[in-house]
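Person: Show me a sequence?

Helper:
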Amino acid sequence: MSRSPTFIELYEGHAPIPPMAVLIGWRTLEFDPEIGFIRCEMIAPAEFLNSYGTVQGGALCMLLDQCVGLAALCALGPGQSAPTMELKTSFMRPVGAGKLVGEGRVVFRAAGIYFAEAKLETLDRRLVATASATMRVLTTR
């Protein structure tokens, strides 16, 4: 396994942007590596819609996982990663294709484990979904 890029390397263009971030049109609005926080804009494309014309729940989970993952990456050092071990999601309202604003934050760190939370909102700040995650901090040798 090769070394994971740091958030700053991704943000400053010194590492390739992951394909998933490209697919969802990820754009960082603000971040704070001291506390493990990120606020971003992303697009739920029409390909994520179900037969009701709303974004499929699994796609919303993926967007929330991206938020907690990058919040953790923001707080990690070089050579570290934090894969999600568990993700619990709550859906508040359906949403169609389009731009969403996501926030992720690390809320607690203990013995190689991060606990993080995320939320997705519409551009007019209507809450769409929330998630809490448990993540394991790994170091690449």
